[in-house]
Amino acid sequence: MEASKKHPLDTFTHLSITYHESLPHVTHIKLNRPRKRNAINALMWREIGEAFRQIGTIGDGTRCVLLSGNGKGFCGGIDITDEKFFSGISPDSSSDDDESSIDMARKALAFKPQITEMQAAFTALEECPVPVVAAIHGACVGAGIDMTCCADVRICSPNTVFSIREARLGLAADVGTLQRFPKLVGFGSRVRELCFTGEDFSSEDALNIGFVSRISKSESQLLGEANQIISKIIANSPVAVTVTKSSLNYSRDHTVREGLDHVA
Questions:
Q1: Residue 72 half-sphere exposure, CB side, CA atoms within 13 Å?
Q2: pLDDT for 172
Q3: Does the pLDDT at position 98 exceed 70?
């Protein structure tokens, strides 16, 4: 049984990576910081990038990834208690105003490589050669939205609460939501309202704007409904599915003519 085999990527601290318990050729990745509501610290961020860069490319036999979160929620956003995220970018209150402003500008520039690295970690989901199906429950906030924007299929439980929270924290979402979310659901008034206000939106809102494709009947049935989708995906030719994902991603960012040339 594939499920009884140890997955070659089951080596991370904050990710649980196993073969699916019942579906062949499926890797199940769980965000695994339940006591922190799966808030993403610096180590977890690196692990997400490392895992998705390798899935489907190391002879693991993966044709589809199920992404979920352990505990009461999918992802509570960035772990703002992790000093490694923000070390060196807080202004020194002991400096005079002019010096503090100059230092803050320099520190912000110095922070850019870290932001680029964080962006690349989530882009790894998008560039993963096999489809990623995200099963979302509970809170999906901030970085959780950034991450799920990179999944290929998203479904959620009825109790899911979403929020593009960054504006409420004095930040602009800089890890992908402002670029990907409107391409998924459109650039209309409701989308801008959600981004500007940082207010919560429900599973029904997410379904209505097209961010998720379905809502499970209950939280307990969420993974079962995700499994139904995945079973249909893995029944198809893995080559056809991989090429389809590549073409969809390319065509999203190019003209129709360029997309046709890419897939020809």
A1: 4
A2: 85
A3: no
